[in-house]
Design brief:
Uridine Diphospho-n-acetylenolpyruvylglucosamine Reductase, domain 3; 15 helices; alpha+beta; globular; five-stranded antiparallel β-sheet; eight-stranded antiparallel β-sheet; 2 domains; Vanillyl-alcohol Oxidase, Chain A, domain 3; 434 residues; 20 strands
Length: 434
């Protein structure tokens, strides 16, 4: 039996494959098609929906890992699709290179993160799919396809495909020279944060904030490039202790304890949320980009996330917070708010064609999430929101088709590459149709 990271999605496939080469991927795809078994691909299992569940063939990318080539003149790297982001960051660092932006979790596979349009924060920085220069994938016929050679529409569809076009085996990614970031996180008043939102977003390379229901204080994070060489790798005992206290003890252990108590005693959640924000203390960190952008996340939860037009952020968040109070929903996890550049090159990017604000809502493991997530979804849709493809939502093709200007172009590419739906499961059939 396979389980996702959150532990709330599971399946028992008829066949589990871990190919170590593109030829082995081709053999697995062809044999699955001959046997009449659908194929779904799994990376780190960090999606929260039923994206990869199958009773057919579950194909793991774990053995397709590593940097396959570096082109310094072009500023690109070729990377195997199963490479974990934390491993890619380490390998790029060894070449004096980096991705221009990252999310705050680095446990995902490259393919899983890119195919669902995973993102960081930064108004001038796009989601991970915007770094993609080419995609290598194995089609339903067992052919190896270079997306760029197949036409612009194929490449633009393959950047964010939710695994519906084929088995992605490698990417060519745009990279930048390694750079140093200085990050500060500190408590701030929610009202002031929303009133001066444009100043915060436009005045920092990266800006995001976390907002607990029932509290008027947020955790604001500002991160900016700084001049000078990348710091050395040596870390003092004092530095390691401080990193543990700030990252593990306060952000994970204390949060987990607060959430556990809230799950056991829901009536205490408003006070616990205010206590959580009272514990926030200003901290700062300087280091290589991935060291500063990435945070350890050991508390288990499930999540829904929506990309809204940036200008809708304050009103939408205020309405979502109000719903928690008016409906007396037991929510003991914060909203996370980030900002992303528009994406004009990925047909199914939630940020397609517009600068976007992402609002994520979470629910601690073991707590009912359906009513809360449905309420958040309703608010997001009222502002033209689009769901994050790796998070929970209940939309189907008939509703999703109206949210993406080039939906029909993606569907045409899908029909060409997978005419019989070999890479479909219940999730794919729901979001894209049969």
């Amino acid at each position: 039996m396979w389980n996702n990271w959150a532990g709330d999605q599971a399946c028992t496939p008829a066949h589990f494959a871990q190919p170590a080469s593109v030829d082995e991927v081709r053999d697995t795809v062809r044999e699955s098609a001959r046997q009449g078994r659908g194929v779904r691909v799994v990376g780190a299992g960090h999606s929260f929906g039923d994206n990869v569940l199958t009773s057919g063939t579950l194909l793991s990318l774990d053995r397709l890992s590593g940097v396959l080539g570096v082109d310094r003149e072009a500023g690109t790297v070729r990377v195997a699709a199963g490479t974990r982001l934390h491993e890619l960051n380490r390998l790029l660092d060894g070449h004096g290179l980096a991705l221009a932006n990252l999310g705050d979790i680095d446990s995902q596979s490259v393919a899983g993160a890119i195919s669902t349009a995973t993102h960081g924060t930064g108004r001038n920085l796009g989601n991970l799919a915007t770094f993609v220069q080419d995609v290598e994938l194995v089609t339903a016929q067992g052919d190896v396809l270079q997306a760029s050679a197949a036409g612009r529409d194929v490449l633009e569809a393959a950047r964010v495909s939710v695994g519906a076009l084929g088995v992605i085996t490698a990417y060519t990614l745009k990279v930048v020279p390694s750079f140093t970031l200085h990050g500060v996180q500190e408590p701030a008043a929610l009202d002031e944060t929303l009133e001066r939102l444009d100043d915060h977003v436009d005045g920092n390379d990266h800006f995001e904030f976390f907002s607990f229901p029932h509290s008027g204080t947020v955790l604001a994070k500002r991160t900016n490039r700084v001049d000078g060489p990348v710091p050395g790798r040596g870390t003092s005992t004092t530095g390691r202790l401080r990193s543990y206290l700030e990252g593990e003890l306060l952000e994970n252990t204390a949060l987990d304890l607060v959430c556990r108590l809230g799950r056991a005693r829901p009536g205490l959640i408003p006070r616990l949320n205010r206590l959580a924000t009272d514990l926030i203390t200003p901290t700062s960190r300087t280091g290589t980009s991935h060291e500063v952008l990435v945070s350890k996340r050991s508390v288990r939860f499930t999540e829904t996330e929506w990309a809204l037009p940036r200008e809708a952020c304050a009103e939408a968040l205020t309405e979502m917070r109000r719903l928690v109070t008016s409906r007396r929903l037991d929510v003991n996890f914060p909203f996370e708010v980030r900002f992303v550049a528009g994406d004009g090159e990925s047909l199914l990017s939630p940020a397609y064609g517009r600068e976007s604000c992402y609002i994520a809502a979470h629910m601690y493991r073991g707590m009912p999430w359906q009513e809360f997530f449905t309420a958040v979804q309703d608010v997001a849709l009222s502002y033209g929101g689009r769901p994050h493809w790796g998070k929970r939502h209940s939309l189907s093709a008939d509703r999703l088709s109206g949210l993406y200007p080039r939906w029909d172009d993606f569907q045409r590419v899908r029909r060409e590459l997978d005419p019989d739906g070999l890479f479909a499961n219940d999730h794919v059939r729901r979001i894209f149709g049969a």
